[in-house]
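Demo today. Your pick:
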Amino acid sequence: MTAKRSGAGRRRSMARTPGAAGAAPAGGVAPLPPRDYESLLRAVSASYEGFSRRLKQIARFALDHPNDMALDTIAVIARRAEVQPSSLIRFAKALGYDGFTDMQRVYRQRLTETKPSYSQRIQALRREGEDLSNPLLVLDRFAAANIAALEHLREEISPPSLEQALGILEKAESIHLLAYRRAFPVASYLFYALNHLDCRAFLLDAVGGMLREQVRWIGDKDALIAVSYPDYSPEVVEVAGDTYRRGIPVIAITDRALSPLVQCSSVCFQIADAAVHDFRSLGSSLCLAQTLVVALGYRLETRGQRRPAPRGP
């Protein structure tokens, strides 16, 4: 196939499992290198916080430019990533590979297996010199970008992750929802829709600076849905991390494998929402939210598990 040299890689939803490939085991034994792209993403995510500043820079570049990592020479990649070639070799060895060429095989294998990414489709839609003061043209751009993003969501969503998330929601006595700023409409919709299913759903909206008090209502048999995109809200990340460490299931909706929510979630959905000239939509995120609500409602209805309306705090 002919692969384009630009575009972000797949950002699939991932269920968290212990012992991610590429993570260094105890005793200093070299990790086994990931041999497929999804395992490589998990390894980079698991190792990211322990990387040096330079290796973190390479990790971000590799995540956003997987096609360049597959097709370019180490010298060209180093120049584009603004690092030394020796740093790319250290990055590969930190993940267990013999060297950069060994790791590059995984990126090349991805090109033979994947369809064009969402970012590649969006780049194909871009046309320079357009008059964006024309509202119909703006509408056309946003509609086209969202259509591509929704098609990408349908193709890339992980069925096991959907099943795991629904299993968590089915078992939860209460479902708590947390999102700030741009992500807030996703949590707000989930709060509205889940309450119409007679689920015990609580929106942690921090009104009056009362987030800590609201978080105290998250019980051991509950679940948390946390939503955050760059620049990731520290409050959302902190609450998700604290909740996950308590052993309470956390469903994360975010944008990429290096999101801080990946490491503090039971299941994580990485959603590539549409963007036009840096104006980002929430179409794919809301589509996922609706999918979870409708599927959960159907399961509760067919199993006779409709719950009483919440009477909580």
In short: Residues 118-156 form one domain. The beta strands are 14-15, 175-179, 201-203, 223-227, 250-254, 267-270, 275-276, 279-280. The chain has 13 helices and eight strands. The first strand starts at residue 14 and ends at 15.
